[in-house]
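for the writeup, i need someone to sanity check this before i put it in the appendix. the sequnce is what the collaborator sent (i think, or maybe the updated version? ugh). structure was predicted straight from it, no edits. if anything looks off just tell me and ill rerun, i have time this weekend
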Amino acid sequence: MEQKSIFSVISPIMVGPSSSHTAGAVRLGLMAKNIYNNDFAKVKFILYNSFATTGFGHGTDKGLLAGVLGYGVDDISIKNIFSIVNNVEYSYEYMQDISRHPNSVDIIIDDKMTISGDSIGAGEIRINNINGFATDIDGSYDTLLLMYKDKPGMISMVSDIIQKRRVNIASLHCGRNSKGGTASMYLALDVPIGDDVVEIVKQIDDVFFVTNIRKLK
């Protein structure tokens, strides 16, 4: 039997009128913040389809910005986020694309990382692309994400580091743009790992990006 989260049974406790357009937007922003996991000075949001046409009235623009700044779905500051933020440059674009989910967004941080995701209803979200690599991250697991130069043995090296900490890997996904080119890997974990594990993975030759994505509350 498929397990459902509490968000799929009842709407989340939130600020705003819509679980898809407001709470989902905040959670997409929070996931982008967790993935980038660094200070930033600029963020651009490209909203698609229903997010673009009806999101303004539901506070989607406010929710996305509040999320990347670290505010939760129940924080009343979301309503006034534009008057609160003063150290981050932000902008919005609005598009229609029938190939994208009705509630879809690209979040571009510091012109370095593009994180694409969908708000799929009842506050639930899915990150489906990071810098051109397909993903399926919904925030329900702590997740180790890394990008590296494609070469033999990388999967076994990373999984061995995690398993030595007696942490179970719930799922593992990897992809590459070409043989010997840039590759990505993300591992959903049953329990959180410490920053020491991230530092060890960073020391592997040809790994150029590692982040520990904390699961959403």
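Residues 6-137 form a domain with the 60s Ribosomal Protein L30; Chain: A; fold (CATH 3.30.1330.90). The chain has a mean pLDDT of 89.
thx in advance!!
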